[in-house]
């Protein structure tokens, strides 16, 4: 058994069989073979070893010819390792005696070798690990051949263990079979993490290197509450986690009874609790939890899930479905927030040194007007079906906001000319997620109908910490006093101008912050749908006076750690059943 610590990004516990993806998206399977297939499987292994050997010999000769014998010798070492009689007899034994598939036998044996090398003191020998992985990959390539599929064609429940998953890979995971995932890379605010919440599967990211220690088919536990991954758990650990899953189910069932009760504080102050969605199917998740609207529809996932740019009709179908399903409840559609870590298939990543500071979001929209206009047309067409609002992401300057509004006005004019109906009083809002927007908030509030604070980005840009980088995860903190000051200013300015302000970053879905946010004057939160019951529970358990007192104490503190532990205690004192 091995316990690994990573970053918890999507709650819940999943127990199951590992599907391991290596850096190149190789799927490393465990499959037992039947007794009567053993001879065929041994033949398959031999054919793969022979083909891999021929390939390496060819490389050795080509490199020796071009660069000299010395370089060719690198491949000689690979060849010797591949043809080592001990390795061969181990592989044969695994297939013949234990009925492992050749793929699993190769992966398991070579990974065990790699671990031995990794533990050696000599850095020269530790480096040889890459040679071992190279041989593993070569053999797998030959063994899997056309079956080298990535995450497609799953047929049984799995937990995905991968080096990294991009937001679009995550968005395309097969929801029927993927029960959780854990990655070596990734940070707490990455969009991969956000998608995991949308899929409502436990996820842990930023674990660091661990894939060498695990093989496909191993039993694994992913604890998305504590950020822990357990490889090959013992019986006692399995029993403990199974018990935890049962307790969680009981708490969820208890909270379900809140579904039709209003989100109102103990002293009767109403709070608007909206849901965040990335995919239309999540409307169900929102309605099931009693959301009173969609506070953030991240439409960029329409682009991430497809190999071509979505047409106006594809947009319209998605939006009209969501709007109709929500009936008279508001739906805030955010125009596409592509770029940075959300890169669609249709556009190869730009060579950007700092993609989060680069051509992303509204900047990208304003440089790709036809694409932007296509989306706006579809939003406007859907606006007659319900209570649609439009929101622009990552606004940093007034000029940017005005440009976006001008494009919208222009599209409206176009529709008018063509006689296409749309809501003339469509409310227009902006995300407040760049510190510059907070600095200029007094101006912004005059030019929009509503605002929504995006703390995921606001934290990143305020503290200069990449939200998706595991190396700086300890510095990424929503409870930082600098962030809290910006929130205070934004909320006060909106209140002063009589404009509704929402908070739709991950912060609002964390019950630790609910009292603080209410105390700062926030009355609208938009959260990942699964978090709605917990947040509602906190709202209904506390009074605004208590929240104001807690916020005042927190604002007097100097660092995030003190603030966070104080807030945790406050929530625990008032709502112990959450077990924070
Ligand atoms: C945010 O930045 O807080 C936000 C809600 O937007 P996204 O996470 O999509 O960047
Ligand atoms: Mg954002």
For the residues shown, what is the average pLDDT? 91
Structural category: alpha/beta
CATH homology superfamily name of the largest domain: Phosphoenolpyruvate-binding domains
CATH architecture heading of the largest domain: Alpha-Beta Barrel
Query: CATH topology of the largest domain, what is it called?
Result: TIM Barrel
The small molecules bound here are: phosphoenolpyruvate, magnesium ion
> Helix amount, in percent?
40-55%
Largest sheet: 9 strands, mixed
Question: Helix segment count?
Answer: 23
Explain this structure to me?
The protein is of the alpha/beta class. Helices cover 48% and strands 14% of the residues. It has helices at residues 38-67, 69-82, 85-97, 102-119, 123-127, 129-144, 167-171, 191-199, 235-256, 282-288, 301-304, 312-326, 362-367, 369-382, 398-418, 435-439, 441-447, 455-463, 481-497, 514-519, 532-541, 544-555, 560-574, and strands at 2-5, 7-10, 13-21, 27-28, 158-162, 178-183, 203-205, 219-223, 228-231, 272-277, 294-298, 330-334, 387-392, 427-432, 450-453, 501-503, 524-527. Helix 7 links the parallel strand 5 and strand 6 (178-183). Phosphoenolpyruvate is lined by residues 194, 296, 298, 337, 433, 454-457, 504-505.
């Amino acid at each position: 058994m091995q316990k690994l610590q990573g970053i918890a990004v999507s709650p819940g516990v999943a127990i199951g069989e590992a599907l391991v993806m290596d850096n190149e998206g190789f799927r490393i399977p465990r499959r037992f073979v039947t007794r009567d297939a053993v001879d065929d499987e041994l033949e398959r292994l031999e054919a793969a070893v022979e083909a891999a050997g021929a390939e390496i010999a060819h490389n050795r000769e080509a490199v020796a010819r071009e660069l000299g014998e010395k370089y060719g010798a690198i491949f000689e070492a690979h060849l010797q390792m591949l043809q080592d009689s001990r390795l061969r007899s181990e592989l044969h034994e695994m297939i013949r005696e234990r009925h492992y598939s050749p793929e699993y036998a190769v992966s398991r044996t070579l990974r065990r070798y790699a671990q031995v090398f990794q533990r050696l003191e000599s850095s020269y020998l530790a480096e040889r690990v890459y040679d071992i992985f190279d041989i593993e990959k070569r053999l797998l390539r030959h063994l899997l051949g056309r079956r080298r599929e990535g995450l497609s064609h799953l047929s049984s429940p799995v937990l995905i263990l991968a080096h990294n998953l991009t937001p679009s890979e995550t968005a395309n995971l097969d929801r029927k079979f993927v029960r959780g995932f854990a990655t070596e890379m990734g940070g707490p605010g990455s969009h991969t993490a956000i998608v995991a919440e949308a899929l409502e599967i436990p996820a842990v990211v930023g674990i660091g290197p661990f894939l060498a220690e695990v093989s496909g088919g191993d039993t694994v536990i992913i604890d998305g509450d504590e950020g822990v991954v357990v490889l090959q758990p013992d019986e006692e650990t399995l029993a403990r986690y199974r018990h935890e899953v049962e307790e969680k189910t009981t708490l969820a069932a208890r909270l379900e009874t809140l579904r039709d009760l209003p989100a109102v504080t103990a002293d009767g102050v109403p709070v608007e609790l909206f849901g965040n969605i990335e995919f239309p199917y999540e409307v169900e998740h929102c309605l099931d939890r009693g959301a009173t609207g969609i506070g953030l529809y991240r439409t960029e996932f329409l682009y991430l899930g497809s190999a071509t740019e979505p047409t106006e009709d594809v947009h319209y179908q998605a939006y009209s479905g969501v709007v109709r399903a929500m009936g008279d409840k508001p739906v805030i559609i955010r125009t596409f927030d592509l770029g940075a870590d959300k890169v669609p298939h249709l556009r190869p990543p730009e060579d950007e040194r700092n993609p989060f500071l680069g051509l992303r979001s509204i900047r990208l929209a304003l440089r790709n007007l036809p694409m932007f206009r296509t989306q706006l047309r579809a939003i406007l067409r859907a606006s007659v079906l319900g209570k649609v609002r439009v929101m622009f992401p990552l606004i940093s300057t007034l000029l940017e906001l005005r440009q976006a509004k001008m494009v919208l006005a222009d599209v409206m004019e176009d529709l008018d000319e063509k006689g296409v109906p749309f809501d003339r009083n469509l409310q227009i809002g902006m995300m407040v997620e760049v510190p510059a927007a907070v600095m200029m908030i007094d101006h912004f509030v005059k030019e929009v109908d509503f605002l929504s604070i995006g703390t995921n980005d606001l934290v990143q840009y305020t503290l200069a910490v990449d939200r998706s980088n595991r190396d700086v995860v300890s510095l990424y903190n929503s409870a930082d006093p600098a962030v809290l000051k910006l929130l205070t200013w934004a909320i006060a300015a909106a209140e002063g101008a009589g404009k509704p302000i929402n908070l739709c970053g991950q912060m609002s879905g964390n019950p630790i912050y609910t009292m603080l946010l209410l105390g700062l004057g926030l009355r609208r939160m938009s959260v990942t749908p699964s978090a709605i019951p917990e947040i509602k529970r906190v709202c209904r358990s506390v009074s605004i006076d208590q929240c104001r007192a807690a916020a005042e104490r927190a604002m007097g503190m100097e660092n995030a750690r003190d603030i966070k532990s104080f807030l945790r205690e406050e929530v625990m004192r008032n709502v112990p059943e959450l077990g924070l």
